[in-house]
Amino acid sequence: VQLQASGGGTVQAGGSLRLSCTASGVIFRINLMGWYRQAPGKQRDMVAIITTGGTTNYADSVKGRFTISRDNAKNTVSLQMNSLGAEDTAVYYCYTQDSRALSYWGQGTLVTVSS
Question: What is the pLDDT of residue 73?
């Protein structure tokens, strides 16, 4: 499984960005899709995940600002990020887990929020 993410970049504080990720290759049934992020010098943390049925889970720090969505037919997951702040600056990684509980990671896309 290959995960290709896009949509990162630099945005001013208070602005918005949308990340997208598409899974391709030999794909078993995908259960979870989501996003993690890793800021400089910090561990990689969950940002948001979504199940096949649309159940979502968000990190407390992004609730009310970020929205995750997915298209099961296209094996894509997106993350709409609003009201971005400096604390959101990080490399964002697309993530998926299939029905065998195998996890896959994208290459990461950098989001920089300038003040």
Answer: 92
